[in-house]
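Technical annex, item 7. During the second reporting period the consortium partners agreed on a shared format for inverse folding records so that results from different sites could be compared directly. Each record opens with the tokenized structure and is followed by the designed sequence. A conforming record, contributed by the partner at site C, is shown below for reference.
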């Protein structure tokens, strides 16, 4: 949860996702839990592939999937 909160403040892509979740009517804690789940999936993928986090690539991927 701490990572989700920190990323929602410091990362434009995660801040945008947080705003989208809030606009869909989620309470702040619900949006944070959804972001935390996303961060966990992302961290697992980065560890498994041994790739560094590239925010631009993450943002492009979200846009291409319409999320």
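Designed sequence (site C submission):
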């Amino acid at each position: 949860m701490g990572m989700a909160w920190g990323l929602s403040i410091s990362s434009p892509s995660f801040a945008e996702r947080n705003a989208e979740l809030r606009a869909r009517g989620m309470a702040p804690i619900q949006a944070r839990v959804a972001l935390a789940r996303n961060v966990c999936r992302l961290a697992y993928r980065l560890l498994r592939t041994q790739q560094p986090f590239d925010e631009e690539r993450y943002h492009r991927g979200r846009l291409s999937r319409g999320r």
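The helical segments are 2-10, 12-23, 28-49, 55-64. The CA atoms of residues 4 and 32 lie 6 Å apart. All partners now use this format for quarterly exchanges.
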